[in-house]
Amino acid sequence: MALEVGSVVEGVVTGVTNFGAFVQLPTGETGLVHISEVSDEYVENIEDFVKKEDHVRVKVLSIDPVAKRIGLSIRQAQEGWKPKPKGGRQRGPRRGPQSFEEKLARFMKESEERQRDARRRTEGRRGGRGH
């Protein structure tokens, strides 16, 4: 059975970290359920939701054959799950699922912009004081 994005399968939790849970899939491959994809409610301690050796239903969110990464979701595999309405904390237009590298690049760009803005504000304050 080949995995496809969007399919829902059963898996076994093989490891739990502070950022997510690793799940072995029926194909023998292992994917990651990021902590944000464990539950619709806030997850402070992932071990309150899953433990090693638990059997879980997961939805395949992404497959990156080059990096050999599979993104999974427990919350989206639940019966009756519906995405939350648009709005809220979202800053820009959503462009569909993004790879880890795309998310990291966006984070770095936004972080650099924030640092540049903070430097400008700080330099403006120091300029008239002779520092």
Topology at a glance:
Layout lengths: L7 E10 L2 E5 L5 E5 L20 E10 L4 E5 L26 H28 L4
Parallel strand pairs: 3-5
Antiparallel strand pairs: 1-2, 1-4, 2-3, 4-5
What does this 3D model show about the protein?
The chain folds into two domains: 1-78, Nucleic acid-binding proteins (OB fold (Dihydrolipoamide Acetyltransferase, E2P)); 95-125. The chain is built from one helix and five strands, in the order βββββα. The chain has one helix spanning 100-127; strands at residues 8-17, 20-24, 30-34, 55-64, 69-73. It has a five-stranded mixed beta barrel with strand order 1-2-3-5-4. A hairpin with a 5-residue loop joins strand 2 (20-24) and strand 3 (30-34). The radius of gyration is 20 Å and the shape is elongated.
Helix content: 10-25%
* Structural class by secondary-structure content: alpha+beta
> Can you say what the CATH homologous superfamily of the largest domain is?
Nucleic acid-binding proteins
Strand content: 25-35%
Order of neighbouring strands in the sheet with most strands: 1-2-3-5-4
Short description:
By secondary structure, the protein is an alpha+beta fold. The protein has one helix and five strands; from the N terminus they run βββββα. It folds into two domains: 1-78, Nucleic acid-binding proteins (OB fold (Dihydrolipoamide Acetyltransferase, E2P)); 95-125.
